[in-house]
Structures are given as C-alpha cells and as structure tokens.
From TrEMBL:
<protein>
    <recommendedName>
        <fullName>Glutathione S-transferase</fullName>
    </recommendedName>
</protein>
<dbReference type="InterPro" id="IPR036282">
    <property type="entry name" value="Glutathione-S-Trfase_C_sf"/>
</dbReference>
<feature type="region of interest" description="Disordered">
    <location>
        <begin position="107"/>
        <end position="130"/>
    </location>
</feature>
<dbReference type="InterPro" id="IPR004045">
    <property type="entry name" value="Glutathione_S-Trfase_N"/>
</dbReference>
<dbReference type="InterPro" id="IPR036249">
    <property type="entry name" value="Thioredoxin-like_sf"/>
</dbReference>
<dbReference type="InterPro" id="IPR010987">
    <property type="entry name" value="Glutathione-S-Trfase_C-like"/>
</dbReference>
<feature type="domain" description="GST N-terminal">
    <location>
        <begin position="138"/>
        <end position="228"/>
    </location>
</feature>
<feature type="domain" description="GST C-terminal">
    <location>
        <begin position="240"/>
        <end position="373"/>
    </location>
</feature>
<dbReference type="Pfam" id="PF14497">
    <property type="entry name" value="GST_C_3"/>
</dbReference>
<dbReference type="InterPro" id="IPR004046">
    <property type="entry name" value="GST_C"/>
</dbReference>
<dbReference type="InterPro" id="IPR050213">
    <property type="entry name" value="GST_superfamily"/>
</dbReference>
Length: 385
C-alpha cells in the first residue's frame, strides 16, 4: 500500500525546512547539500492513499537522518519538498488529494544555528527518534466501518469539543477495512518514530500514531479542553482511573458476554458460555460497576453539578455516556430494572446531561453516529432471559 522511494528522484530525500521549525533531512553519506536548500511546504494529508505515500516518502530511506532544532518539526508532519515543479509529479504519483498548508519560501542558506549540524552523520539518533506533533495538524481516527465500537469512545470527545477530525470508518469506497487491516498486519513494524499498533482505534496526529482507547483519550483530553478543571495537575490521573474502570466494565466485560471463549469464534459457536457469562454480568458485574460510578458521583471529589470529577464536564463523563448508551442497547431490560431501583440516579442523570449537550445532541441526530449492530455492544434478547 505504501508508495516507495524509487518513485522519487534521489534528491528528494534531501530537504530542508526552516520556517517556524528547523528541520533537515538527508540520505546516505556525505555532507548535507546546503546549496540544495529549497522552498518548502507543509503537507497535510487528506486521503488515505496519500497518507501512506507520505509515510512512504519519509520512511523510504532505511535510516533517514533527521535533525531538528528543538521546534515542533517532525518527520511525518512536515514533509519538505523542493518546490521546483516536482510537487505535481509527486502528488500525481501518490494518486491522492492533499491539503497544502503553510506554504512558505525560505532562504537558500541554512540558519546560523544550523551551521554546526550540517552533516547528517552529526545528527544524534535520540533526536531523530523523538516524536513531536504539530498542534495544527489534523486529527485522524482510524477505525472499522459499520459499527460504533471503541471508535465511538474517541468520536464523542471530538464531537463535544467541536473539533474537526477525519474518520476512516466514514470514507467512501470500502477503503476503511483494508486500511485498518494494514495497521494490524503482522508485517507492519510501524515507522521511524512510532511502534506498530495492535488494533484499532488508532489516532494519527501529525507525526504521532497511537492506539489503545484510554491512551488516545489521555492524549486528546487536554488538547480538546476535556481534562477537567485541574487539567495541569494530578486530576488527569483520577479521570484516567475512572475511565479505565468504565472501559473494564462497560466495554471489555460486555464484549465477553457475547464472546466469552474466543473472538475468532462466532457468537453462535459460544452461545451456551455466552448465556452463563451474560447472566453473571447482568446479575453481579453490571450493578457493581454502576454502583462504583454512583460512588464516584457521591464522593466529595465530584464537586458541583452532574459530573464525575471536579465539578466540570470532562472526558470521563463522555466515556460514561457512551458506555451506558451501549450497555442500554445490549441489555435494555437489565439496565431498565437497575434504573428503576433508584440506586443509581446520579448515573442516569449524568447520562441525560451529556445527551443534552448541544454538540452531542447534534451528533446523535446526525448520520455520523453509526447505529449499533455488531461490535462491542450487541443485543441478543436471549442473553437477558
Ligand atoms: N484495549 C484495546 C482493544 C482494541 C481492540 O480490541 N480493538 C478491536 C476493535 S474494537 C479490534 O479490532 N481488535 C482486533 C484484535 O484484537 O485482534 C483498546 O482499548 O483500544
């Protein structure tokens, strides 16, 4: 799927970017070709194909040396390409659609601060490996198409914050599944700065590629203003512990109610075990997890208002909403009974409060919200009998 270096003339492997950031790359031995410093551009990718091609460009040389001067320049978020007419060729070869942003022409000479680093061999490996992101880079969610799944736990943050993101699950032309499979492929060893991921959801932001839902949420929450009142302090660890517990109960354990033996088997192939597991879940675990959420709400730390922590809406509240929404879909009778018990009123009040948030409300009514079907939250009526 990747666009490889041979399509690019060798000189493309040398480039430089010295605008807000100072960024130079080179390939092979020999001095950095300072006389070849060019106007550069920052490329934000708006297509899967091109995305891979850009990665391919950056990763093509086995040990592409990279150096930065400590500014947010990164190998994958800044793609420095000589503006000598070849962009069109590169672009065409990539068969994609790119949003060229931050187009800038610069000096043909290196900045004074670059002089002592004009040789690729002088570049330190740790610097080359450092991952940095550009805050203005687009957010890209990579997830399976057709199910809300764990991708939804990430989407609700973007939707509440009103921050644009691309969502591969919504791309046309059946591209999403092959893309996800590409990430999960046994031959995928990541790239120069990112280890391989195991499974979706995956978040790409600038040069950074990460997976694991709680990890993605922890990364996004402060950037989207959803890290609570105490966003610079230890509060984030409290929010994280709440979120991890929600994911244990309302995502992982729920998944095991219909797939208690193996994910590789169909539900039908493990129905008897699923029945037992679902009963234990609805009788014991579901009330226990709801009870935990209610205790968090009853605690002094929840502060004023319906929120879980610190008297302010934070990402944990959005996660709770999605978790409970999925659980209501999967086990409507059980959740209904527990709601009627009146023991978890705070939990349901919080659920309603999130549901009524203007941006969430709009999202739920939009076609961006994928209906439940298979995936984590499934409804098998026999599992509640
Ligand atoms: N703990 C991981 C679980 C990831 C996961 O299981 N993703 C599912 C989709 S929701 C998947 O495709 N898994 C493939 C696999 O486990 O082989 C997370 O929170 O992101």
């Amino acid at each position: 799927m990747r666009y490889r270096a041979p399509l690019l003339p060798a000189k493309f492997l040398y480039s430089s970017h010295c605008a807000r950031d100072c960024f130079q790359t080179g390939s092979g031995p020999g001095p950095f070709p300072e006389d070849e410093m060019h106007c550069t551009c920052r490329v934000h990718v708006a297509s899967d194909d091109l995305h891979h091609s850009v990665d391919g460009f950056v990763n093509a040389p086995p040990a592409l040396p990279l150096r930065t001067c400590g500014n947010p320049a990164t190998p994958q978020s800044l793609h420095s390409i000589p503006l000598n007419g070849n962009i069109g060729r590169w672009y065409k070869a990539a068969r994609g659609r790119a949003l060229l942003k931050h187009f800038a022409c610069h000096s043909k000479h290196p900045k004074p601060s670059d002089q002592n680093r004009s040789h690729p061999a002088a570049m330190s490996a740790p610097q080359a490996k450092r991952v940095k992101t550009n805050d203005d880079a687009p957010y890209e969610l990579i997830y399976w198409p057709g199910i809300p799944g764990r991708g939804e736990l990430v989407r609700v943050l973007f939707e509440e914050a009103g921050v644009p993101y691309t969502d591969t699950a919504k791309t046309e032309g059946n591209k999403a599944a092959p893309l996800v499979l590409g990430y999960m492929d046994a031959g995928n060893t990541g790239d120069a700065t990112n280890p391989p991921v195991f499974a979706p959801p995956v978040l790409k932001h600038g040069s950074l590629t990460i997976n694991q839902v709680p990890n993605i949420l922890l990364y996004l929450a402060p950037k989207l203003g959803l890290a609570g009142a105490d966003s610079d302090g230890d509060g984030l660890f409290h929010l994280n512990e709440i979120v991890l517990t929600l994911l244990d109960g309302f995502v992982n354990e729920i998944h095991e109610t219909h797939h208690p033996v193996a994910t590789s088997l169909t539900y039908e192939e493990q129905k008897p075990e699923a029945k037992k597991r679902a009963k234990a879940f609805t009788d014991e675990r579901l009330p226990k997890f709801l009870g935990y959420v209610q205790r968090v709400l009853d605690a002094k730390t929840s502060g004023d208002g319906p929120w879980l922590y610190g008297g302010k809406l934070a990402y944990a509240d959005l996660v709770l909403f999605q978790c409970l929404d999925g659980t209501k879909y999967a086990f409507p009778k059980s959740v209904g009974k527990l709601q009627e018990s009146g023991k978890y009123d705070g939990v349901f009040k919080l659920y309603d409060a999130v549901k009524e948030r203007p941006n969430i409300k709009k999202y739920l009514e939009s076609d961006r919200r994928v209906p439940y079907s298979s995936g984590i939250w499934r409804h098998y009526p026999e599992l509640e009998e």
